[in-house]
Amino acid sequence: MARKRSKHDPYDHLPPEDEAAAAPLLCWLCGRPTGKTIVWHHPVPKSRGGRDVVPMHGICQQTLISNFTNSELQRHGMDVAGLLDNPNVRKFVDWVANKDPDFTATIAKKQR
Question: 51: exposed, middle or buried (C-beta count within 10 Å: 0-12, 13-18, 19+)?
């Protein structure tokens, strides 16, 4: 007979699906409630040893990816305030604050 839950479940810290429907998760970057689509983002990239995941909007994740390299994301770690110090990210968060949770738009390409 198979076990219902694994001893080493990598998602055991996440709420069960029935609880997630009751209380909407907040986006890690902008603080708005997430919509139907939730992106589980690694604040510290997996290539840099990151294991933690946080809920985000897809548009918020694309903004981070277009404004920071993996090395910069590793330096900031789980510190949202450090990411918001970037003028491009701050401008984006202020702009998206009043948008619908499922809002999507095209994000500018990386400016390196």
Answer: exposed
Please report, for the chain, the start and end positions of each structural domain, with discontinuous segments joined by +: 39-97
Entry pTM: 0.72
Neighbours of 31 (CB within 10 A): 11
Average pLDDT estimate for 4-31: 72
Give yes or no for a contact between 53 and 41, defined as CB atoms under 8 angstroms apart.
yes
Under a CB-based contact definition with an 8 Å cutoff, are residues 63 and 71 in contact?
A: no
What's the N-to-C CA distance of the chain in angstroms? Answer: 54
Q: Is 25 exposed, middle or buried (0-12, 13-18, 19+ CB in 10 A)?
A: middle
Residue 106 neighbours by CB under 8 Å, 6+ apart: none
